[in-house]
Amino acid sequence: MKEVKFNEYAKDVVEQIGKGAFLNTKYHDKKNTMTIGWGNMGIIWGKPVFTVAVRYSRHTYELIDKAGEFSISVPLSGNLKKELGFCGSKSGRDFDKFKECGFTEVKGQKTNTPLIGECDIHYECKVVYKQAMEPALIDKSIDDKFYTNNDFHVLYYGEIVGCYETSK
Ligand SMILES: Cc1cc2nc3c(=O)[nH]c(=O)nc-3n(C[C@H](O)[C@H](O)[C@H](O)COP(=O)(O)O)c2cc1C
Predict the structure, then answer these.
(1) How many C-beta neighbours within 10 Å does residue 18 have?
(2) Which residue from 19, 62, 148, 165 has the fewest beta carbons nearer than 10 Å?
(3) What is the architecture of the domain spanning 2-165?
């Protein structure tokens, strides 16, 4: 892994997030990854921050909330489509997704959360703020589209403490 500036691949990463990236979590000896399609990268409180949105129903929610950190591994060039599908439909409660997908677990450099060696770009993040969505404040069109079952997202703001590209 080669360290790069957090925004070096911002354009590619923001484009790919809409198609899918991996949100990795680890708490004690339990690790997991799930597909995300939403995320924000930018500056807040004078820090580079990656914000992810995790619904309460996810196994990932239990791990990220306890661990207070996470990592993101982004596949570029349309890679790992099958794995994005698997990790976006199966739960870590039922599967070891790293094992099922044959992922290489790369040790984090600044956190305890692993990265996925088969991906191209990676972020290590420490949660500096979390925000439960306030149902009364959501625009009605979004509420009707995404939250009819009340399975709201919690937003996790992760300070980016490391950003890497996989050495080829
Ligand atoms: C393309 C795609 C994007 C997704 N984005 C999110 C997301 O941003 N937040 C979320 O909570 N779930 C998202 N999901 C759903 C989770 O990936 C899925 O429910 C997963 O099985 C949860 O795994 P877990 O129980 O191991 O955490 C997405 C699924 C797909 C296929």
Answers:
(1) 10
(2) 148
(3) Roll (2.30)
Ligand 1 lining (C-beta closer than 6 Å) = 20, 32, 34-38, 53-55, 58-60, 88-92
Determine the pLDDT at residue 152.
Answer: 97
Cα–Cα dist 36/17, whole Å: 7
Contact yes or no for 48/150 (Cβ under 8 A): no
Pocket test for ligand 1, best of 34, 103, 150 (most atoms within 8 A of CB): 34
- Structure confidence at residue 86 (pLDDT): 98
pLDDT of residue 167: 87
Residue nearest to atom 17 of ligand 1 (CA): 88
Question: Consecutive 10-residue runs of the chain (168 residues): their mean pLDDT?
Answer: 97 96 98 98 98 98 98 96 98 98 98 98 98 97 97 98 94
User: Of 109, 110, 111, whose CA–CA distance to 31 is shortest?
Assistant: 111
